[in-house]
């Protein structure tokens, strides 16, 4: 809906992170706009540098593209980083100065696994800086498919739209009204997530036990997989600070890259296919999300049941060691 609202022609661009969740590039293409990529910095834990945003904005403008909005995914997908508060303030300031709509994908806000990081919504950050609805158009996205509830089958999502004039908000409601509403169970679930049990409610204690149990288990799974990847030859993996994914970098032997080229596929896709065929483990090639040219990655979820993680790690290690031996330069 927001892409439909923002994009008028191929001369309108949307700044999106690379690596990115492919929904963004797909929806931009669907509505006839231009993707303006900005690269996250793997060396700083997938940091979002405002200098990089300015560089890509200016390059797009030099090509005649009017950049309309900035997409920020926090915590990151597929990269799993959590933005620092000071970094968020710089991003808000950038959008304010450049007249951009800030599209804040915050669907993993419950999934934080490190003690030195906390989730701060962009709306909270903007208000703490003294900006009101009159200063910054901001859209926050949330979903029933993520978080600690992870109800992927229910297909419920919602957004908060702030900083838009009454006329524009009316158009958003018109676009929404064209569509049929989501199924009833999805609507009920969305309302429950927006209004969870509160202290004093009959179900509060059992709710908190289940919530904390799920999130602490996800944190243990993330740490176990991160440590396993970093123990292997030719793989480096940044810390999983949040979300549900790891995005390790693989340094493939030249022979493996050659085999992939001979098979007519990207090297990381070749690796992922071989892994699937050998073990049944599914990862998504980094080339599906975008990455710095010449680097190779894959996205791995932390969602398998905790008691299955050791077996997955064992199978993965066995495959990787054999793969590296097979293609050793």
Automatic annotation (TrEMBL):
The keyword Transferase applies. SUPFAM superfamilies: PLP-dependent transferases. This is alanine transaminase. Residues 9-304 form the Aminotransferase class I/classII large domain. The keyword Transport does not apply. InterPro entries: ALAT1/2-like, Aminotransferase_I/II_large, PyrdxlP-dep_Trfase, PyrdxlP-dep_Trfase_major, PyrdxlP-dep_Trfase_small. Its cofactor is pyridoxal 5'-phosphate. One of its GO terms (biological process) is L-alanine catabolic process.
């Amino acid at each position: 809906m927001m892409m439909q609202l923002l994009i008028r022609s191929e001369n309108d661009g949307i700044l999106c992170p690379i690596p990115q969740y492919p929904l963004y590039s797909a929806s931009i293409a669907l509505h006839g706009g231009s993707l303006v990529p900005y690269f996250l910095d793997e060396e700083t834990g997938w940091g979002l540098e405002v200098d990089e945003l300015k560089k890509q904005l200016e390059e797009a403008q030099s090509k005649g593209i009017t950049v309309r909005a900035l997409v920020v995914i926090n915590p990151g997908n597929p990269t799993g980083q959590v933005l620092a508060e000071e970094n968020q303030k710089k991003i808000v300031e950038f959008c304010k100065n450049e007249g951009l709509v800030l599209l804040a994908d915050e669907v993993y806000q419950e999934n934080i696994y490190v003690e030195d990081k906390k989730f701060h919504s962009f709306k909270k950050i903007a208000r703490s800086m003294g900006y009101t609805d009159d200063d910054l158009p901001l859209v926050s996205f949330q979903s029933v498919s993520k978080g600690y509830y992870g109800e992927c089958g229910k297909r419920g999502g919602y957004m908060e739209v702030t900083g838009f004039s009454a006329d524009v908000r009316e158009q958003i409601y018109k676009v929404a009204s064209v569509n049929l509403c989501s199924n009833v169970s999805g609507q009920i679930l969305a309302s429950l997530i927006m209004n969870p049990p509160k202290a004093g409610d009959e179900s509060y204690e059992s709710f908190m036990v289940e919530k904390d149990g799920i999130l602490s288990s996800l944190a243990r799974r993330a740490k176990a997989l991160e440590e396993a990847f970093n123990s292997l030859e030719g793989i480096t993996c940044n810390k999983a600070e949040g979300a549900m994914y790891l995005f390790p970098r693989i340094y493939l032997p030249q022979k493996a890259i050659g085999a992939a080229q001979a098979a007519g596929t990207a090297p990381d896709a070749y690796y992922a296919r071989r892994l699937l065929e050998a073990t049944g483990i599914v990862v998504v090639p980094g080339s599906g999300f975008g990455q710095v040219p010449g680097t190779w990655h894959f996205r791995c979820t932390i969602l398998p049941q905790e008691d299955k993680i050791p077996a997955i790690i064992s199978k993965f290690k066995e495959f990787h060691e054999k793969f590296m031996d097979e293609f050793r330069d």
